[in-house]
Amino acid sequence: MAIVATTFFDSVKMIAAEKGIPEEDVFKAVEESLVKAAEKYFQSMDFYGNFQAQMDRETGEFHVYALKQVVKEVEEEDLEISLEEAQGLNPDAAEGDTLWLPQDTSQLGRIAAQAAKQVLVQKVREAERERIFVDFADRMGEVVVGEVKRFEKSAIILEVDRVEAMLKRSEALRGDRFDKGQRIKIVIISVDKSAKDPQVQVSRTDPRLLVKLFDQEVPEIHDGTVVIRSCVREAGDRAKVAVQSIDPDVDPVGACVGLKGSRVQAIIRELKNEKIDIVRFDEDITRFIANALNPAKALRVNILDLETHRVEVVVDDEQLSIAIGKRGQNVRLAAKLTGWNIDVRSESEKRREAEVAMGIVLPEAVTAPVVEATGSVLLAELGGVEGLDEAKADLLAAAGFADAKSLYTVTVEQLLSVEGMDQDFAFRLIDAVHERFGE
Fold first, then answer.
1. How far apart are CA 7 and CA 12, in angstroms?
2. Structure confidence by residue, pLDDT tens digits, 329-362
3. What's the rounded Cα separation, in Å, for the pair 62 and 41?
4. Where are the beta strands (DSSP E) in 171-287?
């Protein structure tokens, strides 16, 4: 007996359209749900058969069948039918054939509906996940506009092309403040078919977002005249972008900046006032490194070790703080942009080193007795820094940091190599030094 369900059939088509799932996938899910319902119903009557369901794609009419194998002698009544009985139903039946025997489904009722609903929901969810994965798997690095739908403790849920996407708080910019319904630009960074949460993960901190924003704002980048060779960010704070022109008549930096800074300012506004240094790429690594330290002006760049990619950059004394940047940010980003370890030195410091190397040393320095380094000077100068006590000051002095000036060019990584130091203390110490010297 057939089950005719025009309303249900129309609902199936509507679900497929709404979810963007092929109708055939939904039809198969419905057929599977009917099989589950039939198994549950007939097993309650001690009939453990092998069931199949078919749905007419044109009319929406359903049939449920019990599949039985034709045998000479029946051993399992639920799964087999004798050749004699089979030929009574179908004269062409032969041993080994499988007969599809229509079943009376009039009593399935609520059981069938409930089973169909459960399986259909599950299958639609699986099909939707598969569709999302297929649709977004090739869109990694693409910048899209998402609408803010709701806020969760550790994430913001957006809608991107009718699909929910997750922007984790760690992937948002420090200054990001959104309202429900607001549309924001994000970059797709991953898609996970097995995730319980929204499968599509997006970011506002990924460097690819900055690259794509330049592609959208700068026609010369979009058409390939200007190429972005490298891009690094400390998201929400500062970024450096290395650009190169394929056309010698086109200034790559000027193209990216735009008339009165219009192009780069549009990107800066989108990224909550993140500072952006646009750097001219150069095949000559020394010139590229000098450019990368922008806005500082390098006097000279000396390659120290090709294998370990170490260079020394010498700048005027008044340019030292600019070259290093707050908490070493400028030189750190320049190092990431170029792939070289950069040691920034002042001109006066290099001059003193040269004098020592040439033996121009005061007699007092030659005859002075060797004394063990203590942190008394450092403690006197920076005693207000939380966590700086006599023991730590002595450890720093023993490591070569006996006064505030010696800490001016130090990095957090260098401080962490000193016994007893932690990251928070290192940041506090560096901030205090920079404040002392008026950065």
1. 9
2. 999 999 999 999 999 988 888 888 777 777 655 4
3. 16
4. 183-191, 200-203, 226-234, 238-245, 275-280
Secondary structure percentages of the chain, helix, strand, coil, to 5: 45, 25, 35
Report yes or no: 196 and 190 within 8 Å, Cβ to Cβ: no
Q: What is the pTM of this model?
A: 0.59
Instruction: Say if CB 146 and CB 189 are below 8 A apart.
Output: no
Close Cβ partners of 248 (under 8 Å, ≥ 6 residues apart): none
Q: In degrees to the nearest 10, what's the CA dihedral of 413, 418, 419, 424?
A: -40
Q: Which residue has the tokens 């039918």?
A: 81
Phi, psi for residue 80 in degrees, rounded to 5: -130, 155
pLDDT over 70 at 378, yes or no: yes
φ/ψ (deg, to 5) at 70: -80, 125
CB 311 within 8 A of CB 286: yes
The residue type at 17: A
| Domains detected in the chain | 3-135 (3.30.1480.10), 138-205 (2.40.50.140), 282-367 (3.30.300.20), 369-436 (1.10.150)
Give whole-number Cα distances, 105 to 64, 198, 293, in Å. Answer: 7, 39, 78
Look at 108 and 167; give whichever has higher pLDDT: 167
The DSSP bridge partners found for residue 52 are: 65
**Cross-sheet strand order for the sheet of 275-280:** 226-234, 238-245, 275-280
Tokens of 313: 């950059």
pLDDT-derived band at 416 (thresholds 50, 70, 90) equals confident
The 8-class DSSP code of residue 391 comes to: H
